[in-house]
Amino acid sequence: MRPTVVFIAGVAWPVTSITRNEMIVEGNTPTSIGYSNGHNNTIRYLDALSPDRAASVIFHEIIHSVESEYGVGLDEKQVTALASGLFECMRNNKEFFRWLMEETGRAS
Ligand SMILES: [Zn+2]
Fold this sequence. Notes:
4 helices, alpha+beta, about 50% helix
């Protein structure tokens, strides 16, 4: 089951799916499939997406959220490149990233 919150720089960002109508009501274009809001720390994605597509959209929005929390000023092209590149790298190196996460917090 997918967790419903992601912590970024210690801040909880709820991650929820919404309908196309809700997406528009919340100020997005009819073609929007996800967004992150740095004012209320939320990530939303379209409920009609396949699980695989939802995962990549959520990851893209996480990169936007990291950008928001750290204020590095990335533009959409940079966010897209980072999100796509990192997601593809993690997807193709699951064993490596599993090991990397297991190493987190170990005493040196
Ligand atoms: Zn974006």
